[in-house]
Design brief:
mainly alpha; 2 domains; globular
Length: 124
């Protein structure tokens, strides 16, 4: 577990990503290993801060879902195909999100790959 920078440019970014993935997967063995690695590489305060950030994001997502905070129109267009595929719009929390018509979905399909390339370019 080296403190190497990943494409994000964040020190120990790979280790922090593993912490998030292991936490969400509830993989106790891997969590124990990664927690030790973070303490060794970054210190106890960094582990506590990282755990707090993970918890905060979980809380924010649950509040947004529970209160039905709508997606912005551009996000709705970019994610329409995926939401259709996964059936997300059938949940009550999606009723406030603007419906995306044919042209909006088409725009999202065209713009989506461009956005992914741009994000990848900015990271690397």
């Amino acid at each position: 577990m080296e403190g190497s920078d990943v494409h994000s440019g964040i020190p120990c970014g790979e280790l922090l990503s593993e912490l998030v993935e292991s936490t969400l997967a509830n993989d106790q063995n891997q969590l124990t290993r990664i927690r030790s690695g973070i303490v060794d590489e970054m210190g106890t305060d960094a582990l506590v801060d990282s755990a707090a950030i993970i918890g905060n994001f979980q809380r924010m997502v649950r509040i947004a879902d529970g209160t039905g905070i709508p997606l912005d129109k551009p996000v709705a267009m970019l994610s329409a195909e995926l939401r259709d595929e996964l059936g997300f719009d059938r949940f009550g929390s999606a009723e406030l999100t603007p419906r995306v018509g044919f042209f909006g979905k088409l725009f999202g399909r065209v713009l989506g790959p461009i956005m992914v390339k741009r994000l990848a370019k900015n990271r690397g």
